[in-house]
Design goal:
With 275 residues, the chain is mainly beta. Helix content is 11%, strand content 32%. The protein is globular.
Amino acid sequence: MTILSPLPALAAAALALALASGQVSAQPLDIKPSAQPAAPRATQRAIPLPPIRPPGLGMPRTDAIQAEAPAPAAAPVVAANSEPRATPAAKPSRPSAPLSKSEAVERLNSYFNGFSTLQGDFIQFAADGRRFEGKLYVLRPGKMRFEYRPPVTMEVVADGTSVAIRDRKLATQDLYSIGQTPLKFLLKEQISLERDTTVTGVSTKGDILSLKLEDRSTLGGTSKITLNFDLTANELRQWVVIDPQGYETSVSLYNLDTQRRPDQKNFVIDYQRVL
């Protein structure tokens, strides 16, 4: 069996957990990269986090608590001959201290290593702003499946060794090596971000922790990855991948379930179709 290369831009976008990012075409499916360069990142639309969000998300924890606190009781009546007393000013609340680089890495490592199965819904935005939805299944180590909703006729399957990109309408299947794709570290049995990637930055906005990574072993060069993690819900909300060609693809996650075990049949690749 021959592993095909290089990765087309379509395959890259579809994978998210196991492939470089690129662009997915609506039906009919076109797996060739666009001749037009990607629009400058500065003009791309903002990527919203998916619903449903916990109350007070994006606010400092102390502020959220104060916003939900009951109204203070009425002030007591002061006698006419009583001298007024100055009321001390309330101290402004302070947001939780942002996590350091090592603390952020440890928080993400602990989260990913806390489960071996994952399924949920995803919303994908391509570099040109087009939106696609579908279902995601993960079974570590090494197994993953993306099912796109119509009109997209594609599905992406990783069986631990290879990644297959199938087109149900055209009845085609292409194979790629899972070792040359970004975010492959998320499919390892034991995840260590600082060992498997280069951590380039960390930031916190409200309760959203953003961890920036680089994977220099991807096909074609270095892929830049941003993981957006919800500190309140303790869940991965989004990842953004910029492939070596500069195409940016984001995938937002919601309705995540780490308890149900996906069916093993979801991760089977029929190698006879390629031969």
